[in-house]
Amino acid sequence: xxxxxxxxxxxxxxxxxxxxxxxxxxxxxxxxxxxxxxxxxxxxxxxxxxxxxxxxxxxxxxxxxxxxxxxxxxxxxxxxxxxxxxxxxxxxxxxxxxxxxxxxxxxxxxxxxxxxxxxxxxxxxxxxxxxxxxxxxxxxxxxxxxxxxxxxxxxxxxxxxxxxxxxxxxxxxxxxxxxxxxxxxxxxxxxxxxxxxxxxxxxxxxxxxxxxxxxxxxxxxxxxxxxxxxxxxxxxxxxxxxxxxxxxxxxxxxxxxxxxxxxxxxxxxxxxxxxxxxxxxxxxxxxxxxxxxxxxxxxxxxxxxxxxxxxxxxxxxxxxxxxxxxxxxxxxxxxxxxxxxxxxxxxxxxxxxx
Length: 354
Ligand SMILES: NC(=O)C1=CN([C@@H]2O[C@H](COP(=O)(O)OP(=O)(O)OC[C@H]3O[C@@H](n4cnc5c(N)ncnc54)[C@H](OP(=O)(O)O)[C@@H]3O)[C@@H](O)[C@H]2O)C=CC1
Ligand SMILES: O=C(CO)COP(=O)(O)O
Ligand SMILES: [Zn+2]
Fold this sequence. Notes:
Glycerol binds at residues 128, 175, 255, 271. By secondary structure, the chain is of the alpha/beta class.
């Protein structure tokens, strides 16, 4: 991983970002460009194996690159260990995460532990983890966000991503829109706690959310152009995080709320969906235009209520109460925590709960 001590600034960015229809067949060219040939090890998911994992495997196999493949079921430390052991056993020289957020995170962390290059091949544009230098992994009953090496390349086939359930793309939009409150929280921490702040990272992150907010009607199901907009925005968010050297520009109080929900009501809603709903409420707390956020998510077709998330009201309220404890070192608008009355007020006023 990159050394970050002292005044040194070391930004880790992907070298190749390939976005477009059928770019999955460019995988060999990308590997060649990175001087990675034999010894690919593919980490894929149960559903995404057929959709993309096998395609990448066959393509590299036909080229004589002798790939290996493993199916990961969950983003857990156990799965990471399995991947590390199999990749070591087969003398793999680089890893590829081909699938959704789970497979990409497992491959990303395994590659970092093995000190091997990593290529991200997302089958859905559901959050900016497809390009970031973080991996969210379950360990000992808790989900932790771990710093890892950024992907050497991102190959986002817009045909494959258009074929994914629309819900995943709408979730990706929620993750992008959440940049607004993340940056507001960061500015607050800079003013109140003198936390280091990067104007460039903040501006890029805010602009990325703004582009989406300016034309939410451009995001529609099964439209290649919509996928292209969202993928580019997710890459841009990832770059903002790389410039900052942390997830600060894209993860604030709304992400803490989402992380709290992951613990209280696991498996109910997608990361980006929860972040979108969190953004509505955190924008209210910031005194900003939360109605515009809600309206934009509604146009896209992303959830804006507890019911649409499939989460009971009581978990929304509990998550609001514990969110500030998720990452105490990251100061946000939640400060030292909301009172139960304040939590209920924000959730009701924004119509997240009824
Ligand atoms: N590293 C980071 O910076 C970040 C990581 N995360 C983490 O990522 C994970 C969530 O990722 P997310 O992608 O939202 O959800 P999941 O990884 O849970 O994937 C959702 C489902 O969609 C399926 N799927 C994906 N692509 C397609 C497709 N093209 N067609 C049909 N089905 C498809 C997956 O299948 P399959 O079973 O094959 O995977 C899976 O069943 C969480 O663990 C979260 O903590 C979230 C944000 C940032
Ligand atoms: O999801 C992220 C940014 O969108 C990553 O943020 P975390 O550091 O909170 O995991
Ligand atoms: Zn996120």
